[in-house]
Fold:
Amino acid sequence: MRTEFVELRGSELLKAPLRVHGEYRRPDAQTLVREVRAPYLEITTIGQGEVRIVRDGRSPRTFSLSRAPQLAALHDSFGALLSGDRARLEQQYRIDSTGSRERWMLRLTPKDAELAEHLVEIALHGRGAELRCIETRTRERGGGRGARGAGDVQVERTLLAGAARRASTVPDSELAGLCRGDGAGSQ
Structure:
């Protein structure tokens, strides 16, 4: 399995969100590869209990997945989603679904209190069999710099498949509408 993605990454250090383009691949049931192609080159591979990050011009970094529980949960839930394993998803998340086959949303809220301190929810938006967007809401930990402090919620959007292809013609301000399937960018 493979799909293009476009992601908007916000940071208090940036004046505007960073638009990242690339591809997700799942070469086997245990491995997830995230390849960033622009505005920088980076390949992150999650599998076999570890994370390996190779970034252009830097030495590769490898660390145990146990050191990054959020990545471990993401890896496991992504695998469960792709394989249609609702029981495995329900082990980690409360699941709420809304909409119709033409336009649906699946909301995943973590059951684990430690994970919920950081991850508020994951909202998956789609049409038919196509997962078009993942909205991840996370909570800042510790004292933030600038206007943001502890407990502030950030939203990161990852557009996939047809929505990612459409995103190349849509300004950043319209990506939320494209993600949710409404607004000018949703066609």
The chain has a mean pLDDT of 84. The first helix runs from residue 69 to 83. The helical segments are 69-83, 86-92, 113-118, 161-167, 175-180.
